[in-house]
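User: Just a sanity check before I run the rest of the batch. Below are the structure tokens for the first item. I only need the designed sequence back.
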């Protein structure tokens, strides 16, 4: 994506959610729960971003 001649990177909130989910899951000693919650949050944020871009 280019904006004013500069290259910008798009953020995939799904990937951010997975990374945060692993960290939160390790902190609470339940990686499955952390991944599930943060994956849902990341997917929601990604859907909100794509809806906003339309």
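Assistant: Here's the designed sequence for the first item:
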């Amino acid at each position: 994506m280019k904006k004013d001649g500069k290259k910008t990177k798009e953020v995939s909130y799904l990937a951010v959610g997975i990374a945060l989910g692993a960290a939160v899951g390790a902190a609470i000693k339940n990686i499955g729960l952390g991944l599930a919650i943060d994956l849902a949050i990341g997917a929601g944020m990604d859907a909100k971003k794509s809806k906003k871009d339309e």
